[in-house]
Amino acid sequence: MGARIIDGRLVAAEIRGEVKARAAKLAAKGIVPGLAVILVGLDPASLSYVTAKEKACAENGLASFEVKMPAETSQEELLAVVRRFNADSRVHGILVQLPLPKHIDEKAVIGTIAPEKDVDGFTPINVGRMVLDEPCFLPCTPAGVIELIKRSGVPTDGARAVVVGRSNIVGKPLMNLLVRKSVNATVTICHTGTKDLALHVREADIVVACAGKPGLVTAEMLKPGCCVIDVGVNRVEDPSVAKGYRLKGDVDFEAASKVAGWITPVPGGVGPMTITMLLANTVDAAARISGLEA
To answer: 36 lies in a domain?
Structure first.
């Protein structure tokens, strides 16, 4: 029997319905949740992502404020825009699209965002609150992974979870979220220094692959019936398709789906959740800043 496919598009649509209803409730009280997105340079992937965010805002009752700046923009010019949005009462969430040009200090920019408007959950204050399990904005992709697991009925209490990858954006936050009492998993985080990756993964009830290496996790590594969440989105050359490439996750999906109990596809798994959780965070921010229930 094959794995149950966790359809990120369906889960995201369910959450967006909740977000839209909450946004409408705030709008009826005179508060329209506003998201400001700042893009520096014209990286095609970033531009596409920003466009998708604008569309999602429009479809779910959020206002969108966009600033596109040339790649030559100075750090001080970018910080000035961030500060302007910090002071703008129409804006409840601020997102600076990453990566930034190399001459700009990413940490300095993120650190300038007002914590109450940090809907990406990247400022040191929100990261600290996350670690302490205090109210805060959670990073969108890790938060989306937790929602996929919970809403798919995957047992987590006492489960052994293995996170493959230790990035500040996905791996490390997931480690902190999985160990929370609300999830209650026992967590191991694996990385490039891990000896015998297969040994650790084979013990896992929940595997989250977020290393950015196509096909890293194979079927032979998996415990039968485990839950596999594939965060990886890698471009792999494929001359048989018009674009010349296809998207492949960090997991060997075809083989793994015959062993796992649950599995996310790439694309269509974790991907749709990231913008969805950004919308949810923005509505949360609007409610907190305005002091109104949503």
So the answer is: yes
227: which strand partners? 206, 262
Q: Is residue 150 in some structural domain?
A: yes
Task: Tell me if 39 sits within 8 A of 50, measured CB to CB.
Answer: yes
- 157 noted as active-site residue: no
**How confident is the model over 75-124, as pLDDT tens digits?**
999 999 999 999 999 999 999 999 999 999 999 999 999 999 999 999 99
Can you name the residues that pair with 263 across neighbouring β-strands? 5, 228
Q: How many CB atoms lie within 10 A of CB 87?
A: 8
Contact of 219 with 252, CB cutoff 8 Å = yes
Annotated active-site residue in 7, 25, 43, 97: 97
Q: Which one is catalytic: 53, 117, 172, 248?
A: 53
75 part of the active site = no
| Catalytic residue list contains 213 | no
3-class DSSP assignment, residue 260: coil
Answer whether residue 12 is part of any domain.
Answer: no
* Given the residues 117, 118, 120, 248, the one annotated as active site: 120
Indicate the pLDDT class of residue 1, thresholds 50, 70 and 90: low
Structural domain containing residue 37: 30-114
Cβ-proximal residues to 258 (8 Å cutoff; 6+ apart), any chain: 2, 3, 219
Question: Among 114, 132, 167, where does a domain finish?
Answer: 114
pTM above 0.70? Answer: yes
Kindly state whether residue 265 falls inside one of the protein's structural domains: yes
CB 58 within 8 A of CB 84: no
For the domain that residue 184 is a member of, what is the CATH number?
A: 3.40.50.720
